[in-house]
Structures are given as C-alpha cells and as structure tokens.
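Predict fold of Probable GTP-binding protein EngB; 215 aa.
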Amino acid sequence: MKVNQAEFIISAVGPSQYPEDALPEIALAGRSNVGKSSLINCLISRKNLARTSSQPGKTQTLNYYKVNQDLYFVDLPGYGYAKVSKTKREQWGKFIESYLLNREPLRLVMQLVDLRHPPSKDDQAMYEWLRHMDVPVLVVATKADKIPKSKWPKHLKIVRETLGMDKGVQPLMFSSELGLGKDELWGILEQAIAYGEPEPQTEEVLTAVTNPESS
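Predicted 3D structure, encoded as tokens:
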C-alpha cells in the first residue's frame, strides 16, 4: 500500500468517540515501550505522527490514526506497567476487552513483543486470551536491530515456544530502525482488510443489475 495521507484522528476514551465511517481497523497491543508508535511511524513513513507517551503506561485511551481512506491503526494502552495500580489495570482491561470483542470494524490485532526478551506473563496472557476468543492476531517481534542477526532464529523460537504458538506459525520479525519486515507486514495487513477487493454490496448491486429477476 502506498501511503499518501496519514493523520491522527482522536484519543478515544469510550465507544461514543470511535469513528463511525466503518473503515477497517488494525489494533496494536503490547507492553509499554515495546515499539508500537515506532512501528506505526515506520509503516506510514513518518517520523513522529505517532508519539511515545512521556509517561509510559499512563495512556488510557485508544489512539486512532487514519491511513489514506483505507484503514485505521488503533494504538491500545500498553499493558504490564508496574506503576499503575491494580484497580486501574482492571479498568483498562475491561475497556480494551470490550473494544476487542465488540468492535465490528476490527480486522486484526498486531500483538507486539520485544524480540530481545522472552514474552512476559502479560504477553502470554494476552495471546492466550486473543486465541481463546477467536480474535485474529499476528505476533510481531520488534527491535530486531538490537540483537545480532545470527541470534534472530534463536530468539524467534523462544518467542514462538513461550507464547505456545501453533506449529508452523511464526512471529513476524520487525525493526523500525531498519525497515525490516515492513513490506511483509503491509502485505498481511492488506489481506486482512481485503485491500483492493470490491465491496460486497457492490457485487450485490451488479448481480441485481445484470439479473433483475434474481432480486
């Protein structure tokens, strides 16, 4: 996908603020400081459209970024930040859970994990929950540039095994600094949002026009 336009839309604090134009949505989940903002900026070839919070873990909104007229990236609050109270974490958990289960335009969740370290218990819990709830999920292993290339296979294996990913399913390795994985990731996202395919209602209209008796 060639990105001609990208803009920040809103920091939504509830469903009443979600966009209503029905564009497909790709959500980003992960621990604070895992590189969600950097990944968004890399995908849209912008340096600082998506900005890292000055207080990691404090953000409790869904940040919407519109790309062309094709989709939204939805940056979810980071999880696993120690300085956030248990009560606050529970509130955020319900907020995010409601979005992930009830948001009709949601097409895919990119769960970001840090390739340098084994996935945390929070990472494992998120992945297991998404799989259990049948929410489409793609694991993206970020910060590949921070470790030697020779160690990539070993770290990918640790990520896959720690999360309990199915045999044959691999994390997508990514580096915002190197642009590694960018094209492959865009290919997956385009497939998830059916980019370039005709809208279903268009096909229905064409059928009705070419075969009026069928309607």
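Residues 201-215 have pLDDT under 50 and may be disordered.
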